[in-house]
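INFO batch 0412 | record 1 of 1 | parsing
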Amino acid sequence: MIADPRFDQAVRLFNAGEWYDCHDGFEELWHETQGPLRPVLQGILQIAVAQIHLGRGNLRGAMVLLGEGVGRLGPCGPTALGLDLERLRQPALTQLQTLQLGGEPLPLAMDQLAFVQLRPPCQKAPPGPL
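INFO prediction complete | emitting tokens
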């Protein structure tokens, strides 16, 4: 997870469907980030910008950015940056596939970009079967 209040704000804006403002937040962080987290930020950013294109009726632009965004999140595994990427990746992929088939994609649900629940490392697992 990025220990930066701008990251939390960008996630909140994403989940509120404030695509342009969240784009600005994620883009700023993306420019400042190096290493393996950079493509994760770029993928989230591209999915957000795809939503702007969808809202403006630019279906080709939306398809390109959804494909790029989903592709960048693919190698990351189900979580990164403390986020449940699978919860975002699957609906974005569904949007992309719907567009590719000539359909009208559903908008992303609010709170699509969710933080994973992390258990402190020293906390015991709850009792029960393994």
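INFO post-check: The two ends are 28 Å apart (CA to CA).
INFO record closed
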